[in-house]
């Protein structure tokens, strides 16, 4: 039986707000948890969270629900674009992520009605490829104000979220 032991939990909170057209995004908090560690290196993993609020001002907005792992500029249809932070020294061997919200869901989008605010929780899982320091960042949100019929046929907007970052934690590479 394996037991997961959180070795570190860091929470930060600040007020960072980005606005673009009818979209307003407010950073709430971030977290970084280390599972495993020197005593259990075979299950060493970082779990990183970024929580934020999105408000639709002056019209409904639609956020593409996809997740794209990339440190490059956004591409059409990238959804929530994220990466392992630039100030990380390590290199991940495996990454995955989820986005959770109670916002209304259409086939490809989260819909936020004019005047409403919805909270989103981005969670990333990072397995270290080498021992080092790791963190994650949200790069961009892919969104539109037009009701979607075909996601790829809509003009897309990209909101840069350069300050939406987790804390940095030390992760030890898994032993073989």
Q: Which keywords apply here?
A:
176 residues, mainly beta, elongated
What does this structure look like?
The chain has 176 residues and is an all-beta fold. It is built from no helices and 15 strands. The protein has strands spanning 6-12, 17-20, 23-35, 45-56, 61-64, 67-69, 80-84, 92-101, 104-105, 109-112, 117-128, 132-134, 136-144, 157-160, 169-171. The relative contact order is 0.27. Residues 1-14 have low confidence and may be disordered.
How are the secondary structure elements laid out?
Blueprint: E1 6-12, E2 17-20, E3 23-35, E4 45-56, E5 61-64, E6 67-69, E7 80-84, E8 92-101, E9 104-105, E10 109-112, E11 117-128, E12 132-134, E13 136-144, E14 157-160, E15 169-171
Parallel strand pairs: 6-7
Antiparallel strand pairs: 1-3, 2-3, 3-4, 4-11, 5-10, 5-13, 7-13, 8-11, 9-10, 12-15, 13-14
Distance between the first and last residues' Cα? 18 Å
Q: Averaging pLDDT over every residue, what do you get?
A: 77
Question: What spatial form do the alpha-carbon principal axes imply?
Answer: elongated
Structural class: mainly beta
Total count of helical runs of at least 4 residues: 0
* Strand residue percentage: over 45%
Largest sheet: 7 strands, mixed
The unreliable regions are 1-14
How would you spell out the order of helices and strands? Answer: EEEEEEEEEEEEEEE
Helix content: under 10%
By DSSP, the count of extended strands is 15
Radius of gyration: 17 Å
Short description:
With 176 residues, the protein is an all-beta fold.
